[in-house]
Every structure is written in C-alpha cells, then in structure tokens.
What does this fold into?
Amino acid sequence: MTQAKNMNTFRTLTTAALIGSVGFIASATLAQDDATPATYPKFKTLRFDENWSEFDPANFDDYWDDIKHHNLSDDGENWVGMGGELRYRTESWNSFGFSPAPTADDTFGLGRLQLYTDWHFGDNFRIFIEGESAWATDRDLAGSRRGLDVDQLDLQNAFADIIFPFGDSKDKLTIRLGRQGLSFGKQRLVSTLPWANSQRSWDGGRAIVNISDWRIDGFWTRYTPVAKYKFNDWRLGPDFWGIYATGKIGEDNSIGVDLYYLGIEYDATRTYNGTAGIEDRHTLGGRLFGKFGDSGFGYDVEGAYQFGDVGAADINAYMFATQLSYAFKDTDWNPKMYVGFDYSSGDDTAGDTDVETFNQLFPLGHAYNGFMDLIGRQNMIDFSAGLSFKPHKKFLIKADYHVFSRSSDADSVYNAGGGVLRATTVGASDDVGQEIDITVKYLVDRHLTLQAGYSHFFAGQYFTDTSGGTADEDIDFFYFQAVYKF
It folds into this structure.
C-alpha cells in the first residue's frame, strides 16, 4: 500500500512539474517576437528528416540555436545537432468501450519526452540517435496503461546512414541500418503513429534512392513492439519489408504518384473471422494526388490489393480511399471543405478457406477514420466530410463527420489497432455509428503548439445488437495537448 501511495505521489508530482514546465515555456515563448525567420528549417514529425546542415546559429538569436548545428571541425564538414520534444496531453473519456459503468469514465494524463542527437561526418556518413520516455498518470480505463501509452525508456531511432552521391547534385543513394521509423505516403498503411504516446519503430535496413523528382525506399525490417517497462525487442515483432516509390508525373509534374509493394509475415498464429494460422501477406497499391489546376480543387485517391495466406486459407482482400477537397481562394479565414470515402473489405464466410478481411498493417487511422481511434480500416465503410478554417494565421479550427458501416455483415468491427472491437452475431445490423470531431489548434510560435478537441461517437444499431443490452452507450472524448519542439 505504501509503495502504491508513493508511486501515485511520484506521478502526481511528475505531472505537476511537467505542466508547470509547459506553462513556463508557453509564457516565455509568448513574450518572444512572433516573427519566424524563413530560413529556419521546419520541425517535422520524423525528426531525422529535418535538414540543419546549412544552418548557422550566429545569424539567429533563438535560445536553442547553438545546439542545432555545432561544428566539430574547422572546415565545417563534421558537425553535430541536438533537439527534442516535450508533450503533455490530458484525456477525458465518458462511456469508454460503449459501457455505462462508472469505471468507463476517466480523466488522465499522457506525457512524452524525446531527445535526439544527429552526427554528420562529411557528406557521406551520419549517425542519428533518438531516445523516448512515455508515461501515463492514473489511466484506469479498460486495458489500463497500454503499450500505446507507456514506454518507460527506450530508443525510438538509432541508425547509421552511408550516403553515395551520383548523377545530378541532388541524386544519391542512402543505406540506412538500425532502428528507424517508417512513414510512407499519406500514412494510411505505414506510420510511426505520432498521435500515440509511444511511437512505432522497426529494426533493419533500408536503401533510399533520390533521383530527379522521385524517391524510392526499399526496406527489410522487423517491427519492434513496445515492452512498456523493458527495452523494446525486435524479436517479438513480425517481419516487414517492401518497396515504396513516390514522385511526380504529368505536365509541370502536377500529378503526385505513389507505388508500393509491402510484405509482412507473423511468427504467431493470427485469426480472421474464424480462420487461423501463420499469416504471410502481400500488399500491392498505388496513390494519385494533386490539384486540378488553379481551381482550388484537390484530390487524393489510393487503392491496395492483398494476397497471400493465413494457414491453409488464401488471402483476397482490398481497400480503397479517396478525398476530394476545395480551398476557397482570396477569402478571409481560408476555408477548406472536403468529402471522403473509405472502403476496406471484410470476410464473407466465417472459417472457410478464403480470408477477405483487409489487414491495415501499421496505419495512422487517427487522421482518417475518426479522432477517437475506435474504428479501423478493416471490414469498414466510412463516408466523411469536413470543414477547416483559420480565423487567424496561428489558429486552425476543424470539424469532421464520419458515418461508419460494415462492408461485410458476416465479419466483425475492428478497432484502430487491428483487433476485434466487437465480435459480430447473426443478424447484427451493418450500422456501426457516426462520429463528430472538433479540433482547435493554436501555433504559439515555432516551438509551441496548443491543441484541444472534442469528439462524440453515436453508437449504431450494431453495438445494440451485439451487446446483450449492456454496452451500447455513446462515447464522449475531450483532450488538451501542449507540444514543445526544439
């Protein structure tokens, strides 16, 4: 009892200290000049994608400038940079898991600290190391503190790059070996999942070819699932490999193109709608994206087909996703409207020799199928619409609406992690539900971003039909988040 009390006291003090730190940082940055020099490199989700090679701290006066590029040799060929991120989010849930029980209501905190160091030795060799500590305070919902919430102390990235220039000045081949984040295209199938408190990473090798307007990634890795209180072990994850190419085609390179092959093989038995066995799955896909001239209309279309086997059963699955947007020109507040349609196949017959449930792999579902991360891209139809606008250059307000249903009434509803959210029953409705998401984001300055949101999920008839009358409540979700990057 004393140990538990001490742990709770420690978490409370840690949380208070973190909130105080964020508050201090916010007050300090608010006092700074709004102007951001255009020559500052942009902070990116994958910090190793940032380019500080030409940055000269002597020309700027930000507090962190000196650590972003420090020369190790007089000629400037060898240098080291450092940086990181401090993030804290408070989440509040009501009727989590569609449950009316008091234990389904909870408010808790999620904190994350990431620090990296980036070493460059000439133009041909680089070492990047990034550590992460993610923790949760008093999360008492179903699942308690999950791997999504807690990764006490670990390596997020630890790799070496060997770079071989060729052809034109920007053409090069990069060989990357070690632990690394993977993120491709619109992240519908492969993402580090930055919204989660602990992010995904993979151990292995990658060859990156930059040539003309194209980038081609070939990789062979093993996924490293989170071990909350131990070092993440690549031996526990599935093998994951593939080729991903992205570039531009058409007149004036106006059409963006992604082409990819992704393979995955699991060591442990996997089950899809009553069919079980070792899964060996292959995904072929492509994506087109761009704008229709100067009209303000934009488009994004992606499709993928999967084949392989689960035990003795054959895989025959697919997905299709599209979004059409319109950005109003020369209008106050920069309004933008968009509509979308997502379809992923489900299994038509339980326990037969065909597996038709799409495997969403490692998605950023949060960005496409609702901020609540309830519904995954498996046996799912999602009609969506949204509106965003900027009442001020630092403010972004978004409203999104989703209507979910099942693509096959013989298969279950899956969650954002690919697990069964609620198993189907005979005669269950295809009406999964609707979700409304409201998001407000404020860019205090180039370092600090504040974000808040509210979501409501209207549980569909499916949850009533499969709950036995005990777990079909609507769900409410509210959060506030502060992110400080340096």
